[in-house]
Amino acid sequence: MSAVFRAAAGGLGGRRLQAIIIGLVVLAATAASTLALGMLADAHSPFDHAFAQQNGAHVAVTLDTSVASAAQITNAAHVKGVTAVAGPFETESVNAKVVPPGVTGGSISTQLNFAGRPSPGGPVDDLTLQQGHWAAGDDQAVVSDTGNAPSQLGTTITVGSRTMTVVGVADSVTNTADVWVLPAEMAAIAGQGGSGQAQLLYRFASSATDSDISADIGEVEEALPSGAVLSHVSYLSVRQSEQSSVAPWVPFIVAFGVIALAISVLIVVNVVGGAVVAGTTRIGVLKSIGFTPAQVVACYVLLVAVPAVTGAAVGLVVGNLLAVPLYRQNAQVYQVGVLGVPFWVDIVVPLAVIVLTVLAAAGPASRAGSMSAVQAIATGRAPRPRHGFFAQRMLAKLTSVPRPVTLGFAAPAARPGRTLVTLVAVLFGAAAVTFGVGLATSLNRVYNDISAAARLPVRVVPPPPGGQAPPPGGGSVHITIGPHFHGLGALTAVQQDTISSAIAATPGTQHYLTQAADNLSLPGLDSSNGGAQITAYGGGDPAWSGLVLISGGWYAQSPGVREIDVNTLFLTDTKTAVGDTYTLVNGTHKVTAKIVGEVFQPGNDVSIYMSQATLTAIDPTVTGPASFAVSLRPGVSADDYSVALQNTLGNSYFVGTGGGGQALVAIITLVTMLTLLIIAIAGLGVLNTVALQIREKAHDIGIFKALGMTPRQTLSMVVCSVGIAGLVAGIVAVPVGILLHHNVLPAMASAANSGIPQSVMSVYSAPEMVLLGLAGLVIAIAGALAPASWAARSRTATALRTE
């Protein structure tokens, strides 16, 4: 065995470049596999991972402190089954005036749930700070990134006479509050008429099912006086909502993760196997001095295991470092506080990569070890005659093509197995480019189709409760008005005339519609989310809303025609189709309407669109439109337009812009990062393969140089050796990437309870596909440039001395 160790040590010392190459490829494979497998694990259940990392509350209980004494509340914190508890935290739900930064007039009045906490950490509900810092004084507040308050640093929140500035944005995995302040500030927020409520956050030993949670809450209620428990929220309901929200994004993250894992395996097998094959001559020498086949295999396993272990250790660190920004984007897409690489991934990945490396080395080493010494030496000196010589002779006849180019084109034929694996690795990388470009384009179109901020960016309503519209000329106003915020009630005929005249006179207007909204519990529909969301567009063609139809057409505006358009979830829940009739029932009011179109509106809410006359017939309390929605001409700024319209209308109306877009930015950023990661892995695989090839053919390159080949010709020869493989991979990758896009996108839409319009699927133009077909060539050339430059700079004498 000592002879094996000495031979392995000698091999490492004499083949430093090979050891570095193996170390680098294992490093890249470990880092990429750590990221990919971690993403796949997180995609399986992102809420559960975040819940575990943040010690989320199984149950949040709101108590009446006027009914339960401090001692009783303390006793309730130690009931049967409790494993951890936080609180009591004083809480208040109050009406607050919110002014985002930069707003010089007006405010938004909204109901906010405040909680007093001394710090973000604790045994339960460990808050993750996304921006800024924790409150350090009574005039500071931290808002939830998913709460009702704008998650912008510098926002001011006023409750009574107290004004606080938002200094931090935090995430509670179970959304335990909208705003957190220091405990001492709660008395001022509650005022003299405070409700006297407090919040206890529990973790229980048994909490997997609704019955477990019910039993846990029963234990708490038994420990307190009757009426002390005002409300309780289970993490299971939050979990269900979160999982429904993230389901659409899982398919594309899984697709990228699988591609990254596949490329990592390919480049490890390709490079390690190639490194052993390149040492076949030395294997023959070892056999000639008495090494047995088993000793040969052991020697070469050690030769690759030493740099592999080093590369795996460093790659694990690099993978975890790269995971920080990548998983931050992932967490934003999944709408959870924090995601990280699971511990088991940090154990499994490096071990798996090392085992894969050893197996990749053992196969070719066993084959070479079974040869005779003479055969191994002869095979290692040059490929077998049938590998590459025919291609060299045929291409040499192309006298119009420079000889270095034909030499490069013929090189892949010498090692067809290695060439095939390199081609497949580049194909994966180029397919990821095609898939990523198409997915980003489709998601951008989805956002433009479903986001009110993109379709109808400006809205006009009466001033919100407790607020006042900004004075004319008051400066830039950037207050967000959501698509279902509609002021105080129906607009009068005079108000409608005033608003429509002002909108028509404001430069930049493309279209405008009146809008009324309602929520109704209808037959056959789940009412857990407040019932069906009803929207009535009037004053023009409902197609001006910018909503896209999957099939059918828009409802008629005629008062006597009862037609509706619905989203896919409505059709699924009611088991109806476009062309069927459906009876809307609201108490004693019934309206039978024909379903004339399927609207692209994904999500967990049932959406129905109808005329104002149909809405009033089913719900007479909605007598007319409550707001105006405006679409703008291309290039017109929504902020500038809203200021101009506000100046025209004066302070009798409120003009605001629709918010949104943060989720799209996070998703597009994640797609870009994942695509670049896969391109980098594929490029590194090419680099290592070419470097190995140059090391193997260094003697031949020296001969070419001695015969007069210039550095530029050497560079061309090496680059051309991967050019054809890269071009073929790129051409094949385009339909592969499109096929992946056309399968993943419907899966995402299905997870979002929706069909998908053809406009979202058809995103690849002919010129774009031609450019995408060159992606494989670009990846291959980029990966080959560094080793090709080294070969071009090497001295002739040095190359000739290389075996």
Reconstruct the topology from this structure.
Elements (H helix, E strand, L loop, with lengths): L1 H13 L1 H29 L1 H8 L5 E6 L5 H7 L5 E18 L8 E9 L11 E5 L7 E5 L11 E4 L2 E10 L7 E3 L4 H5 L6 E8 L5 H13 L6 E6 H12 L3 H29 L1 H9 L4 H42 L8 H27 L3 H9 L7 H8 L6 H8 L5 H35 L1 H4 L2 E4 L31 H13 L3 E12 L11 E7 L10 E4 L10 E5 H7 L6 E6 L2 E11 L7 E4 L1 H7 L8 E6 L5 H12 L4 E4 L4 H35 L1 H9 L4 H41 L6 H4 L4 H8 L1 H19 L2 H6 L2
Parallel strand pairs: 3-8, 5-7, 13-18, 15-17
Antiparallel strand pairs: 1-9, 1-10, 2-3, 2-6, 2-9, 4-7, 5-8, 6-7, 11-19, 11-20, 12-13, 12-19, 14-17, 15-18, 16-17
Report on this structure.
The protein has 803 residues and is an alpha+beta fold. 52% of the residues lie in helices and 17% in strands. It is built from 27 helices and 20 strands. β6 and β7 form a beta hairpin.
**What does the main sheet amount to?**
10 strands, mixed
Helix/strand-derived category reads: alpha+beta
Q: State the helicity in percent bands.
A: 40-55%
Mass-distribution shape:
globular
Q: Please mark out the parts with pLDDT under 50 across 5 or more consecutive residues, or reply none.
A: 464-488
Cα Rg = 33 Å
Compact description:
The protein has 803 residues and is an alpha+beta fold. Strands 11, 12, 13, 14, 15, 16, 17, 18, 19 and 20 form a 10-stranded mixed sheet that branches. A 6-stranded mixed beta barrel has the order 2-3-8-5-7-6.
Fill in the keyword field for this structure.
single chain, 803 residues, alpha+beta, 10-stranded mixed sheet, 6-stranded mixed β-barrel, globular
